[in-house]
Amino acid sequence: MTSLGFSLSHARLAFSGQWLFDGLSATFAAGSWTGLLGRSGSGKSSLLRMIADLPIPDTHALTLTTSDQRPLAGRLAWMAQQDQLLPWRKVIDNVLLGPALRGRPTAAQRQRAMTLLDEVGLSDKAEQWPKTLSGGQRQRVALARTLFEDAPVVLMDEPFSAVDAITRLELHELAARLLAGRTVLLVTHDPLEALRLSDRILILSDQPASLSDFEVPGGQRPRALDAPDVQRMQSQLVARLHSAPHTNNEGST
Amino acid sequence: MSVLKRLWPALLGILSILGLWQVLVVVTGVPGYVLPSPLSVMQAFASHQQLLWHHAGITVIEIVAGLLIGCISGLGTALALARFHGLRRTLLPILLISQAVPLFALAPILMLWLGYGMTAKIVMATLIIYFPVASTCYDGLRQTPQGWLDLAQTLGADRRRRLLRIQLPAALPALASGMRMAASAAPIGAVIGEWVGSSQGLGYLMLDANARMQVDLMFAALLILVTFGVALYFTTDAVMRRLMPWHEDRIGATS
């Protein structure tokens, strides 16, 4: 897997007749992690879906270019807020979902899925039903499934928001280690998560919305929770998100 | 042991209804050709065993054949509708209209076309469950959670595999309730068919017994129908559970 950067331009999204954003552009450097923040209704999740070419009900358009000029389709992995494990597939078969949806998984692919489960610390759960796992374990299986695809670009929509705080911190460490070298775009509501994991933080705010940069702490990802920079910037980031005009769609701005 | 423990409240309820029935008949002295007592039904059952089993065999074959054909064709229709968008506009209105045809009214025509044998009854049983199975399955196939569809798309699934590996298993719980409903509706179709015209089967036997004022025999035939209906329901339920070993109410029991 070689790393792959991409950029978007002319991104526009309408919501009930109004442009939520229009003419957005951004570049995501190969191998970098970008945290995308914004208040509810700012359209950040929709932007992520647009990049992944997933269906959204509203009028939208987007131009995507990659660093090697070939299409992004087929080279991205998707991680959603919920782990989206299929309850009728055993843990290992969930990791093997990609090959199973494109054909029939081979023995070598099964072997690789086992290795990945081992890396997320769940090799002993391979033959269990997802129902028997905890929320954190399930999200680790989802991570293994994402890793299996070996995609250079990983899009994550609040992937750690459904687990408790401690589990979330553990998942940060694991994700940062296992997804190193990939171009990651992480939509999150959690300022701390963005500060720990991002090389770059983008805030989507105003109406029509635009993207603005927020300074990130120094040091290697995942940054320590108690690093003074992380603590200080967390309050700044919260203040910045708070002061951003609320882009709600109910009207009054 | 534990089965008995779970079943005894139900058994107790059934036995007390039977007891009440017996008392009612004895106290009121209602004649046997109006309402036979449970005991005389059991007597009729014992003395007409061979006759009853012969007719029951016919009806059971009709019901099971109708159930299988109806479920398979209903599921097939649902899969085709989910797979080929173009079919929906043609097939859905036809399905809806066909459902509005009262099956009772159709029965004599089926006898006319297919004769008085088993075929007409199997067709009746099939028809009575085909549409409900097709529509519950189709609804189930359409209601796949968006998250799974998103995942399938980003994983590069083709339409056929997405249907078979994601939408179909996701629809199994809906499908199971369709099948259970079909299991209780199929006997109705077969018995209607037998009433309208036949020389064999429990429906025929009941009609014949009615004409001869053998009400106890009618009840004995009814007893077989009820027992078989219940057995069919639980068998279908067990089969559907086997198909869904991951389902919530199974996990707790096995691990």
Automatic annotation (TrEMBL), chain A:
Keywords attached to this entry: ATP-binding, Nucleotide-binding, Transport
SMART domains to which the protein is assigned, alphabetical: AAA (SM00382)
GO MF term set: ATP binding
UniProt name for this protein: ABC transporter ATP-binding protein
Pfam families, A to Z: ABC_tran (PF00005)
Family: Belongs to the ABC transporter superfamily.
This protein's record includes keyword Transport: yes
Ranges where the ABC transporter domain occurs: 6-231
Domain of life: Bacteria
Source organism of the structure: Chromohalobacter beijerinckii
The keyword ATP-binding belongs to this UniProt entry's keyword annotation: yes
UniProtKB/TrEMBL annotation, chain B:
Location of the ABC transmembrane type-1 domain: 56-236
Family named by the database record: Belongs to the binding-protein-dependent transport system permease family.
Gene3D superfamilies: MetI-like
Lineage: Bacteria, Pseudomonadati, Pseudomonadota, Gammaproteobacteria, Oceanospirillales
Subcellular locations according to the entry: Cell membrane
A Pfam match: BPD_transp_1
Source organism: Chromohalobacter beijerinckii
Protein name: ABC transporter permease
Membrane topology: Multi-pass membrane protein
PANTHER family associated with the record: ABC TRANSPORTER PERMEASE PROTEIN HI_0355-RELATED (PTHR30151:SF20), ALKANE SULFONATE ABC TRANSPORTER-RELATED, MEMBRANE SUBUNIT (PTHR30151)
Key words of the record: Cell membrane, Membrane, Transmembrane, Transmembrane helix, Transport
Sequence intervals crossing the membrane: 7-35, 55-82, 94-116, 122-141, 170-193, 213-234
